[in-house]
Design goal:
Blueprint lengths: L1 H8 L3 H12 L11 H13 L3 H16 L9 E10 L7 H9 L1 E9 L6 H4 L1 H12 L10 E8 L19
Parallel strand pairs: 1-2
Antiparallel strand pairs: 2-3
Length: 172
């Protein structure tokens, strides 16, 4: 990523685009990714054509993300959570996404077939269907575009402590 940023900061846009897309897309599996070649061409064209302002913004945002610590999976998320990744994603791997889902009190993990890190561009119809089903609390199992769907349960969250009347609270 640092190499790609060096190209970006030097204004070497073709080299930046090649390096960035190689990071974001698993080129070894490109033939097995739905719309993979099309998405790769789109990203290369788009990243090569960044305006100066966009390049500054991309550089700043990428550096911020590189400084950011990984999420602390010891802190449980109580809300229903869906983590989704492509089966060929080498950037945000299925194993990482599965661990994140397991860290949630009601976590779901879905692995989308024939997709990579850019699955929102590669399989938009399927992602919309998956997220809509999740938000509507509809079944996620048996979807033909998923290689894996799991509901992962994390250890229960501790129940809120009851506070006795008048203990530490406001009196009135």
């Amino acid at each position: 990523m640092e190499r790609a940023l060096a190209f970006l900061d030097a204004g070497r846009m073709d080299e930046y685009a090649d390096a960035a897309v190689d990071i974001l897309m698993n080129t070894a599996c490109l033939d097995g990714i739905t719309n993979g070649s099309r998405v790769r061409r789109f990203l290369l064209r788009r990243l090569t054509a960044l305006t100066e302002a966009e390049a500054v913004q991309v550089s700043s945002n990428t550096r911020r993300l590189l400084r950011h610590a990984e999420l602390d999976t010891s802190v449980r998320v109580p809300a229903p959570t869906l983590t989704v990744t492509g089966e060929h994603d080498a950037f945000t791997t299925p194993a990482q996404c599965r661990r994140m889902a397991a860290a949630c009190g009601r976590g779901w993990f879905a692995e989308v077939a024939e997709s990579d890190h850019m699955l929102f561009l590669e399989r938009p119809t399927e992602i919309i269907d998956l997220v809509t089903r999740f938000l509507a609390d509809e079944p996620l199992h048996g979807l033909p575009y998923c290689t894996r769907v799991e509901q992962l349960s994390a250890p229960s969250l501790p129940a809120p402590r009851a506070v006795a009347p008048g203990a530490g609270g406001m009196t009135g």
